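Design job #97: recover the sequence.
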């Protein structure tokens, strides 16, 4: 090969993809699902690990910082591939605010749940049987009686509504979109866990609850961590679609 031909070949390999080229089928459909699976797996893995390895009486600071910082990093990495939902409640909220197509909702949620299970399984492999058993694999095990359930459901609704609002206004609503959205969502996770972790555990994410519940077979009051986050996300959608969204999202007074 002549020098000029070698140089041309090297430049082709080193050149950046043409941004005007439309995404292919893999980039539109398969890659986003893989990103949701991988991102949720890593988030649930590190979240479960922070609970399993948190010494008894260690408080909420460690899991709060771990979950929040993990969100900032993972959302920043995967946002341009899938939108970095990592949460079935978020996927539902983003769809209802016209952020994704209906055909992607079920695959995203399926990948998030599968990622949650894989992340929890990886945490189980890495930790001792004793620590894993004490923490129920990172499951939300603080609810032990019916007297606690009402407050826990309300806490999950309110806190998920708050974080869903931050997500929708920071990443979906065109008038308020911000490149700092990953940081805003991550910080919201931190102060939600710090403020409400003692009431419900501050799950805010059915995939985060499902993974360790499946791996550790701990399903006590598991429904709380579906009903609360989904209801909270739907309330946030109503607020954006009816009151604070821009004209493309708002349903009234356009």
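Job complete. Output follows.
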């Amino acid at each position: 090969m002549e020098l000029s031909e070698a140089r041309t070949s090297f430049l082709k390999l080193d050149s950046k993809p043409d941004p005007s080229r439309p995404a292919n089928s893999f980039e539109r459909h398969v890659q986003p699902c893989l990103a949701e699976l991988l991102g949720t797996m890593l988030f649930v893995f590190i979240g479960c690990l922070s609970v399993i390895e948190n010494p008894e009486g260690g408080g909420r600071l460690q899991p709060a910082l771990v979950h929040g910082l993990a969100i900032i990093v993972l959302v920043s990495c995967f946002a341009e591939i899938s939108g970095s939902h990592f949460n079935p409640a978020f996927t539902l909220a983003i769809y209802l605010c016209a952020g994704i197509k209906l055909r992607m909702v079920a695959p995203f949620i399926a990948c998030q749940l599968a990622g949650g299970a894989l992340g929890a399984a990886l945490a189980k492999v890495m930790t001792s049987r004793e620590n894993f058993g004490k923490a129920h694999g990172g499951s939300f095990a603080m609810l032990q009686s019916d007297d606690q359930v009402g407050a826990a459901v309300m806490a999950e609704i309110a806190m998920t509504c708050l974080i869903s609002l931050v997500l929708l206004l920071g990443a979906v609503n065109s008038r308020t979109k911000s490149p700092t959205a990953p940081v805003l969502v991550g910080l919201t996770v931190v102060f939600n866990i710090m403020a409400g972790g003692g009431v419900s555990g501050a799950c805010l994410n059915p995939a985060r609850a499902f993974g360790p519940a499946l791996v550790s077979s701990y399903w006590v009051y598991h429904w709380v961590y579906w009903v609360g986050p989904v209801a909270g996300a739907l309330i946030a959608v109503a607020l954006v679609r009816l009151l604070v969204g821009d004209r493309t999202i708002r349903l009234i007074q356009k």
